[in-house]
Amino acid sequence: MAKATTSSKSKPSEKFSAAERQAMKDRAQELKNKARGLKGEAELMEKVKLMNKEDKELALSIHKLITSIAPELEPKTWYGMPAYYKNGKVLVFFQNAGKWKSRYSTLGFDESANLDSGSMWPTSFALTKLTPANKKAISDLVLKAKR
Prior knowledge:
CATH topology: Aspartate Aminotransferase, domain 1
Largest sheet: 5 strands, antiparallel
Number of strands: 5
Distance between the termini: 67 Å
CATH architecture: Alpha-Beta Complex
Number of helices: 6
Helix content: 40-55%
Number of domains: 1
CATH class: Alpha Beta
Oligomer: single chain
Shape: globular
């Protein structure tokens, strides 16, 4: 009787999407740039330029808001997405809808943000536009996160 064989090799497309593979490549480049001492804000702006019109407007508005209320945070990229760092750790990041072919962009907070509240709290927020109420909520969260 023939023994059934299974292969542990899978096609790359079965493991990671093209966007995920690109994000890993972006992260590797970010680490190389850091090792070379390159500043991240220019890289962040280059990534924003590649976004579709709606995502670009939202990303630029988020960038302006965060850098105005928390100028001490370091803007650069994280897996090819705009992110803002404190003491070398990601605090907040923006995932544009176009990158992931999603119906909305996401503003997320990494665990270093320490937004813990009880036994359950949100770590990311769907975002389609930046209203005055959204600006206020984001400002409050960023100010709390950077403490």
